[in-house]
Structure formats: C-alpha cells, structure tokens
Amino acid sequence: MNNFDKVYHDLLGRIRSEGTFKDDRTGTGTYSVFGHQMRFDLSEGFPLLTTKKVLFKMIATELIWFIRGDTNIRFLLEYDNNIWNEWAFKKWVESEEYDGPDMTDFGRRALKDEDFNSIYQDEMKKFKDRILTDDDFSRKYGDLGNVYGKQWRDWIGPDGESIDQLKNVIEAIKTNPDSRRHIVTAWNPAEIDTMALPPCHSFFQFYVKDGRLSLQLYQRSADVFLGVPFNIASYSLLLLMVAKECSLEAGDFVHTMGDAHIYANHIEAVDKQLERNSFAPPSLKINSDASIFEIDYEDFEVVGYESHPYIKAPIAV
Ligand SMILES: Nc1nc(=O)c2c([nH]1)NC[C@@H]1CN(c3ccc(C(=O)N[C@@H](CCC(=O)O)C(=O)O)cc3)CN21
Ligand SMILES: O=c1ccn([C@H]2C[C@H](O)[C@@H](COP(=O)(O)O)O2)c(=O)[nH]1
C-alpha cells in the first residue's frame, strides 16, 4: 500500500472499529471519532487516492474558485462541476420566489422515493440552466454567501476594510518565513449565518523549515468517504502552488480533523474500498509560471494516475 492511501485507509479502519454511532444535522446518522491527524509528505508524490477514482478536475476547479474569491456556483457549473449544487438549490427552493413542486428535505427524499427523485432531477436541471444563463437569477441564487473564497480574499474588518488573507500570508512567507503567524481562517463567526454551509475546512497554517513549506489544516467536520479525498488533494494542490509562488519545496500536508465521520449509508462503499490494494501515487505538474492568482485549471497536469474504479455514494445534504 502506498503511504497516502495507507493513512487514509487507517482512518477508515479506525472509524470502522472505534467509531460510535451519532445522529447528525442531515438526519442520515454517522459513525464518528473525534480528533484524528494524517500526514502526507509531498516529496513522495501527489495524494490523489488510488483505491477509488477521485476526480481531479472537481478538486482543482473548486480550489481555483476559492482562490479567485468567488462564492457563486456559476463558475463551477461552467466546468461541469456539480459538487456545490445542492446547497445553492436549497436556498432557491426555500425562497419566496420558488413556486415549483415541494422540495422539502429533497436530499433524503430523493434517495427513498423514485417518483420524487425524477421530479427533483428535473427541478435541479432547470435550476442549473438558469444559473448558467440568467445573470440576475444567478447573482441571487447561485451565491452561497460569504463562504471560503470571500473570507480568504476579502474578509471585512471592523472599519469596513478588506483583508486579503491569502495574499498577506504569501507575502509573509516570503519576507518572514520563520513567523508562527502564517494563518488563513475561513471561520468568521460574525458571518456564519450568511453561509449556505459553515466552513468545514476552517483554518490553516504554513510552516517553513530548511527550504520546505508545510501546511496544516484544521477541519472541524469531515465526511471521510466523500469529502476527505477531495480535501486532501485540494490542500495538497494549494500547498504546491504556494510553495512554487514562494520558491520553496513542498513539505508535508498535515490534516487534522475534529468530528471525522462515515455516514451510515456509506458503510458498504467503505468496506468495498478497504478490500482494495493501492497503485503508486501520481505526481502533479504545474505547466505555467503564472502566479497562484492567475493560474487556470488547464495549467495542471496529473501524471501517472492509475486507480480502481469510482465507488458511488449519496451525498448528505
Ligand atoms: N455531506 C457533505 N459532504 C461533503 O464532503 C461536502 C458537503 N456535504 N457539502 C459541501 C461540500 C461539497 N463537497 C462534495 C460534494 C459532493 C462530492 C461527491 O459527490 N463526489 C463524488 C463524485 C462527484 C461527481 O462525479 O460529480 C465522488 O465519488 O467523489 C464530493 C464532495 C464537499 N462538501
Ligand atoms: O470540504 C468539505 C465540506 C464539507 N464536508 C462535510 C462534513 C459534514 O459531513 C458536512 C457538513 O455538515 P456540518 O453539519 O456543517 O458539519 O460536510 C467535508 O467533509 N468536506
């Protein structure tokens, strides 16, 4: 087993053996542990898991969306990235303007009721088309509130001033590498209620030693089967980009989690994945000298990614 897949399988295995059942906001139910840490040494390759297929395009376009300070799903949909649809859709169907079929609790109902699921799929398709084609509609209902991108790039301070945390942290790494204050936080308590979902990957810190840049993330809540493979690759990609920007080598991505859970309806999928062996990890090339603020999805190249097939599982909304 390669080291990357191994530490991830260790977490799955730990939750399978020690995780206790816990109800959760989505009504799905989870097996959960509190407090877990994984470490990925990026000199060994790029941690895109190989025991199931993980879609790099979804990860890279979401990260570019954060870096641009964008909070509207239109950008994601332009790349056919559908991972945030449900949370924008929820705001739409709960709004005064929505007068279509009742979509209460659509996430869970779509799993249980086939007739409802087909009505839901129709409504979702109409919603996506409108986000892509209708500017006013998209401004109003495509926006997820002041989520990651807004806080990273345009945190509003007490006097209304804009704070660009990402730009500041990169400047500080370059000019004062030994600082212990290289921090970006998406957790803005004053704005949580504007957000479609309070930040899960909430807070990260950089660390420089011997020409190597490391990053540690605190993730308050971790959907270990669907979210975590994305989060690992996303922060590793961010680390590679910031390291390049600062002319440093990429060191370790340290992933610290609070409530690390497997949803009850992912257990079968997890057990299937746990039976698989890994391939050698891929590597990642950035084929451009553009700054992190200008980089495009097309500038990334995943080299040598061999994986087992997808394992489908429903997302808890
Ligand atoms: N319950 C939950 N888990 C999450 O991981 C999560 C949320 N909610 N809400 C916000 C974002 C959205 N994220 C998501 C959403 C969907 C997938 C997902 O379904 N992944 C599939 C393939 C997706 C596709 O093909 O479009 C996978 O197999 O990885 C992953 C991460 C991560 N976050
Ligand atoms: O990047 C992400 C975003 C979300 N998640 C998961 C973690 C939880 O399962 C849900 C959020 O629900 P809360 O009730 O707000 O904790 O989304 C993730 O793993 N990674």
From TrEMBL:
Domain of life: Bacteria
GO BP terms: methylation
Primary site of residence: cytoplasm
Keyword annotations: Cytoplasm, Methyltransferase, Nucleotide biosynthesis, Transferase
Gene: thyA
Compartments (UniProt record): Cytoplasm
Self-association state and partner proteins as the record states: Homodimer.
Binding site for (6R)-5,10-methylene-5,6,7,8-tetrahydrofolate: 223, 316
Described purpose of this protein according to its UniProt entry: Catalyzes the reductive methylation of 2'-deoxyuridine-5'-monophosphate (dUMP) to 2'-deoxythymidine-5'-monophosphate (dTMP) while utilizing 5,10-methylenetetrahydrofolate (mTHF) as the methyl donor and reductant in the reaction, yielding dihydrofolate (DHF) as a by-product. This enzymatic reaction provides an intracellular de novo source of dTMP, an essential precursor for DNA biosynthesis.
Recorded family membership: Belongs to the thymidylate synthase family. Bacterial-type ThyA subfamily.
Ligand binding (dUMP): 25, 180-181, 220-223, 231, 261-263
EC numbers on record: 2.1.1.45
Protein name: Thymidylate synthase
Residue stretches making up the Thymidylate synthase/dCMP hydroxymethylase domain: 7-317
Catalysis performed (reactions): dUMP + (6R)-5,10-methylene-5,6,7,8-tetrahydrofolate = 7,8-dihydrofolate + dTMP
GO molecular function: thymidylate synthase activity
Active site: 200 (nucleophile), 200
Pathway terms, separated by semicolons: Pyrimidine metabolism; dTTP biosynthesis
CDD domains (alphabetical): TS_Pyrimidine_HMase
